[in-house]
Amino acid sequence: MQRLRTKITVYGAGTALLATALLPGVASALYSWYGANYSFDSSSWSYVWACDGESDDNGAYAKYDRNGASNQRVDDPNGSQAGCGGVGPFSPVYRHHICESQFWSDPCGSWVYNPG
Questions:
Q1: Does the residue 15 lie in any domain?
Q2: Are strands 60-66 and 69-75 parallel, antiparallel or unpaired?
Q3: Which end of the chain is more exposed for a tag (fewer CB within 10 A), N or C?
Q4: Which of 2, 100, 99 is nearest to 47 (CA)?
Q5: Do 60 and 100 contact (CB within 8 A), yes or no?
Q6: Residue 1: inside a domain, yes or no?
Q7: Residue 66 falls inside a structural domain
Q8: Is 3 inside any structural domain?
């Protein structure tokens, strides 16, 4: 499963959808989008990734809450270059969403909630 996640990280959401369609029984991750920036989780909800998909000099980060720890954050350390920032494993994530660092306030995508 880790190898699949690495490919998703490098190639993006299109590959995630294709991989999910081609590999029956593989649970799909849930995504939060803001423009071309996105966050996603592992199928077990024990990892969260933040991906900056825009070359706009605004960083992207995911905010997430997990059991026993709220207001957590993971940044995409290399901006819009290939790859994403990730954290985990830890107790299940309750929810996550992507945000973009801007001068005044940081706009965010919708919260995505753990269905379990």
A1: no
A2: antiparallel
A3: C
A4: 2
A5: yes
A6: no
A7: yes
A8: no
Query: What's the pLDDT score for residue 49?
Result: 96
From CA 68, how far away is CA 92, in angstroms rounded? 10
Domain count, the chain: 1
Residue 37, beta-bridge partner list: 34
Dihedral Cα 109, 76, 78, 103, nearest 10 deg: 50
Q: Rounded distance, CA 105 to CA 19, Å? A: 36
Domain that holds residue 81: 30-113
Distance of CA 116 to the CA centre of its chain: 18
Q: What is the number of other CB atoms lying within 10 angstroms of the CB of residue 86?
A: 21
Quote the DSSP letter at residue 46: S
Tens digit of each residue's pLDDT, the chain (116 residues): 333 333 333 344 443 433 333 334 345 789 999 999 999 998 788 999 999 999 999 999 999 999 878 899 999 999 899 999 999 998 899 999 999 999 889 999 999 999 88
